Amino acid sequence: MLYRETGDFKSSYATDQQTFPIRSERYLFWGAMVIAFLVVPFFINDYWEKSVLVPLLVWSMAALGLNILTGYCGQVSLGTGGFMAVGAYACYKLMTAFPDLNIFFVVILSGGVTAFVGMLFGLPSLRIKGFYLAVATLAAQFFLVWLFNKVPWFYNYSASGQITAPERTIFGIAVTGASAPPWATYLFCLTLVFLFAWMARNLTRGTLGRSWMAIRDMDIAAEIIGVQPLKAKISAFAVSSFYIGVAGALYFSVWLGAVEPTEAFGINVSFLVLFMVIIGGLGSILGSFLGAAFLTLMPVLLKNVMVGGLGWPTDLAAHFEIMLVGGLIVFFLIVEPHGLAQLWRLVKEKLRLWPFPY
Amino acid sequence: MNQHIDPGTLRADDGIERGGMLLHVDNISLSFGGVKAITDVSFDVKKGEIRAIIGPNGAGKTSMLNVINGFYHPQEGTITFRGEKRRRMRPHRAASQGIARTFQNIALFKGMTTLDNIMTGRMTLMKSSMLSQAMWWGPAHREEIAHRETVEKIIDFLEIEHIRKTPVGRLPYGLQKRVELGRALAADPALLLLDEPMAGMNLEEKEDMSRFVLDVNQQFGTTIALIEHDMGVVMDLSDRVVVLDYGRKIGDGTPDEVRNNQAVIDAYLGVSHE
């Protein structure tokens, strides 16, 4: 009753093409956005910022990026951690080299640098596919992390080998550095994620997105009807790496403030983002968010329940949490191999007929 | 933008009159290692006709289509398409020159909807930049809607309105074949290659498909080269037939000529070697 198509007529192709074709869906979306932009900033505190909302936004951005490459274009990548490191280090170098440059542009430029690196490491995709490509991107992962450890220029010759984000402001309000207020960092990340999610949606529903999906579904047929494999694959690598680079820049500058490459950008990061994309749903923008939410919020929730609610010792809770999250991943993949986004799609199909299914 | 369903208009405007030479295949030989798939085959396709390529299994028919649209590169011979001679080219170049095709085993994009599949067929005609696509509102959106109008006309023509938003992986075989024809038509082809459009269909579906093929040819003036095993269909639809056997051309002419050609009869029915 709440969710129905009946009576919601479309009389132009423009309205037929909109992202949320059903009215109640649109209301739900804009309602959520109003809460996220106008209500949450007033109630956010340090804990919610650093352990829940900013991580959620940063991982959503990374998952969006990987979903463009793996979900839409069908190219498996295990180099996400390495590309996030490129974004983070590009951000650090730009912040320190151009202290007057606005952090917004620094983050965008970091994405651009990562896009370029991603294109280079995407070149093997023209010759190799599937698992073999995954192994080739694994090389990017290890090479890039090694590079940022070994070449002192990247961390400005600091003694610890760490990089630390200096304070930068937008409209006079700090968004990076230790004294940045929680609402400012949250809004900064949210704005970027909103903007780029919207662009990802536009790209994937347009010509470029169709050329990616054509390559994913049947590359030979795609080439014969006029898709240029070189252009499609390299653009997917570039766009995907751009998103992952922006995620890496935010991860370093806004969320953590200081990072050490081996720990922060290891292979486990690549796997984490890949799991987000798989659990959320390959080839779905919503899926990227659902997957990121599942893998960032579930551990926080479990920890709160076990330590806060049941009073278990922290180490026991930590181990139990890993087991539970692992179990849940298996459970969800068995119940719905196409991810949480597909689950949501099925719910919507059921809701269309509710309460009178036939 | 062309507003009527006329996949012929954009690219057919090449100065070649109906009945003039559209495609000329000269002395093509193709081999894979030691296997000779095609040996010294020549034939032509005239503008506006339906040209059938027939032959027993393994005769080299599909290889011939693959040569024409640039997927295989022949060792010998040349292809002249619309007066332009070529030896090697990438398939997407052939596509942007106006050669579209369907496949023997359906090669649709299974995860995409019918609409998206057919829209993909217009890939070579859509020009908006990546940045304007990311912004959506503006040139990219206008272009999208203009092409959507043409695609909707193709959808109407093929009578597949009801499956517009269905992922093609879920569709039955006959409908998938039809969507694939739609995707090829969307490219506004000057030459349409159909690889066994009626394979695996029942009588009713074959009749539908024959009707679509004839309509495409007559209403839009699209030149068609088709491979088909159903002799009834071939003889009824085509203007001229070329017959291949073991990679060689053994017959060429109108359906009646081919039917009475002794070499063709031998190839199909077998001949006793005494």
Number of strands of chain A: 4
Q: State the total count of DSSP E strands of chain B.
A: 10
**Alpha carbon gyration radius of chain A:** 21 Å
| Percent in helix of chain A | over 70%
| Overall average residue pLDDT of chain B | 87
Number of helices of chain B: 11
Q: Return the string of H and E elements of chain A.
A: HHHHHHEEEHHHHEHHHHH
Give the strand line-up of the largest sheet of chain A.
1-4
How many whole angstroms does the radius of gyration of chain B measure? 19 Å
Q: What is the overall silhouette of chain B?
A: globular
CATH topology of the domain at 9-110 and 188-269 in chain B: Rossmann fold
Look at the structure and name the CATH superfamily of the domain at 9-110 and 188-269 in chain B. Answer: P-loop containing nucleotide triphosphate hydrolases
Oligomer description: heterodimer
Reading the helices and strands of chain B in chain order gives HEEEHEEHEHHHHEHEHEEHH
- State mean pLDDT of chain A (0 to 100 scale): 90
Annotation field: number of helices of chain A: 15
What strand order characterises the main sheet of chain B?
Answer: 6-7-8-3-9-10
Pick out the low-confidence regions of chain A.
Answer: none
Query: Termini of chain B, distance in Å?
Result: 64 Å
Largest sheet of chain A: 2 strands, antiparallel
